[in-house]
Amino acid sequence: MSPEPTTLPADWWREAVFYQVYIRSFADGNGDGVGDLAGLRGRLTYLRDLGVDALWITPFYPSPMADHGYDVADPRDVEPVFGDLAEFDALLAEAHALGIRVTIDLVPNHSSHDHEWFQAALAAGPGSPERARYLFRDGRGPDGSEPPNNWPSVFGGPAWTRVPDGQWYLHIFAPEQPDLNFADPEVVADLEETMRFWLDRGVDGFRIDVAHGMAKPEGLPDMVPMEDTGLLDDHGPGDHRFDQDGVHVVHRRIRSVLEEYPGRMAVGEVWVSDDERLAQYLRPDELQLAFNFKLLTAEWTPTALRDAIVHSLAAVEGTPAPACWVLSNHDRPRHVTRYGGGELGTRRARAAALLQLALPGAAYLYNGDELGMPDVDLPDEALQDPIWFRSGGTERGRDACRIPVPWSGSEPPYGFSSRADTWLPMPEGWADLTAEAQAARPASMQSLYRAALAFRASSPAFGGEELTWLPAPDGCLAFRRPGGLVCLLNLSGTAVPLPEGTVLLASTDVEGGELPSDAAAWLVA
Ligand code: NOJ
Question: 497-525: b or e for each residue (b if 16 or more CB lie within 10 Å)?
């Protein structure tokens, strides 16, 4: 049992800065080229010094790694590649001692095909209670040789795979990730057992994978056909795979378990773009937070960014939840790259960091955001994402945003591992990007994040959850928080005068009283 950080309020997560640790890529402690819990333990003081409040660690459970851990064979143990339960307990205790909360991934929608339940379902045959834990159906067509409905898998191809006795099973993701049947009480009970297993060990909460999945409509009707299924994009009400009303029953169960453990929370990965539908996940007896992906999907234009903010705030208005801002994660191109890459992308990413961290609510950083890591184009033979294989090599998948974090030195693997052949190759030319090199440069991305997180944690200017838009020059956004913080973001293409006030922090040099384009500043009046 791990001691809890005791000094924070029960709703510590409302304004928290979470740091997403993509475990395979954060730090390798045992020299096998893959990141692990020991590696993370060794970097906890870095995270404390960076100023994050909490971690979200991506799945580290036993897994055949068809989807790099999101195919969970046993949700109540640790994959040997990542460590063991004792290592996890030690990590948790050390993080707590440093004042860092620890949240972990919960993957309810599907298991691995290696999970003992799925193996039992295959062995038990049609009509068995073992099959009832998953979504097995007979096929269509005279000999049942066509899938039961027209649903596509998010990773390409049909969402159904046929087993030797002729039945089909549903997998919204890879065939190695069979969907569980949440209408089966055993499935819900098992999820609760998993939650308690980790809550009893002392974790502070969960990030819930595909939190708009889980419930499937009665009869599994055909959906509106769509050419591009897109990775977890919201396709609206015609897409019966996601956002079914029944999912809220599951969220209420999840919340009722959390309520037994004061101060613990859950954030949902909810790819639902309609504000009102998203708000439903944030009712008082459901999730405490839901990622709002509007900032992550917004173009670098003042209109798109303002829209993203307005809608994100509208979604939480009338719910007990604060907004929850994300710029990057392990599923999408990194924002340095999205914003144009190179110097331009980095400059914009610095401004975006100040925008994200000035907004009211919780913020999630993805490991490497603080270093300004870009995506890396990998050669075909290095690609590992199931999307690459399932699409027959037409979609490159998500490996580009999952490159291991560069820590130190001038050559790959930059202190990430003692072994040169890391699970995804690291490029030449990253000597200036390493955490060590950036710690020494006051103008680095890392220094900007450290300063921003320090202000955010200590300055009364960040008080209050409201946001008031201020008049601003064309092409600029400006808003004020009740505590007095003013954030100005300039995308106008030319420098604009800074408003009255003292500059707390700026993403670029603002001497002369002007804010250049693709830059942001924090001021207090
Ligand atoms: C969302 C996760 O973020 C992604 O990485 C994963 O492939 C899918 N869920 C399936 O679990």
Answer: ebbebebbbbbbebeeeebbbbbbbbbbe
Residue positions annotated with a catalytic role: 209, 260
Give pTM, 2 decimals: 0.97
Nearest residue by C-alpha to atom 3 in ligand 1: 331
Among 106, 242, 331, name the best residue to mutate to test ligand 1's pocket (greatest count of ligand atoms within 8 A of Cβ).
331
Question: What's at 258, amino acid-wise?
Answer: L
Q: How far is the CA of 343 from the centre of ligand 1 (A)?
A: 30
pLDDT confidence of 3, banded at 50, 70, 90?
very low
Q: Considering only CA atoms, which of 257, 248, 167 is closest in space to residue 211?
A: 248
In the sheet with 160-162, reading across from the earlier edge strand, the strands are 136-137, 168-170, 160-162
Average pLDDT over residues 368-388: 96
Topology at the third CATH level for domain 466-524: Immunoglobulin-like (2.60.40)
pLDDT digits (tens, 9 = 90+) for 13-61: 999 999 999 999 999 999 999 999 999 999 999 999 999 999 999 999 9
Domain ranges of the chain: 17-109+185-220+228-452, 116-170, 466-524
Looking at domain 17-109+185-220+228-452, which of 3.20.20.80, 1.10.3430.10, 1.10.150.20, 3.40.50.150 is its CATH number? 3.20.20.80
CA 210 to ligand 1 center in whole angstroms: 7
